[in-house]
Amino acid sequence: MQTITLADDVLGVVKSSIHLKKRVLQSNYADYKGQLKTFESKYGMSTKQFLNKYNLGQLGDAQKWFDWLFAYEAFSEISRELLLLHKVRL
Q1: DSSP states along 34-81
Q2: What pLDDT was estimated at residue 5?
Q3: What's the angle, vertex CA 31, arms to CA 27 and CA 37, rounded to 5?
Q4: Residue-wise over 61-75: b if at least 16 C-beta within 10 A, else e?
Q5: For 49-86, how does the pLDDT look when each residue is reduced to its tens digit (9 = 90+)?
Q6: What's the pTM value of the predicted model, to 2 decimals?
């Protein structure tokens, strides 16, 4: 782990920015999680099943599959960023 030293006035701005980023990510996380559940319900398969079929080329190139893939990739990236931010100690 690396330690960073900040002036007190800067520390307040950094803390505020990190808390804001966390809130935005948490909101986006919930939104994309809801989108994934909607896709799963609509198409009768889990996101994992979708990804397997998509990667095997079994679903074709319909826009709905790209939308589902985008939602999954966004959800995954947001999840990764949230995990990283939870490691930040201020």
Answers
A1: HHHHHHHHHHTS-HHHHHHHHHTT-S-S-HHHHHHHHHHHHHHHHHHH
A2: 87
A3: 145
A4: eeeebeebbebbebb
A5: 999 999 999 999 999 999 999 999 999 999 999 999 99
A6: 0.88
Q: Which two tokens stand for residue 78?
A: 């947001």
Q: Is 78 exposed, middle or buried (CB count within 10 Å of its CB: 0-12, 13-18, 19+)?
A: buried
Q: How far is CA 51 from CA 3, 43, 44, 68, in A?
A: 39, 13, 13, 9
> Residue 49 has what pLDDT?
98
- pLDDT of 1 > 80? The answer is no
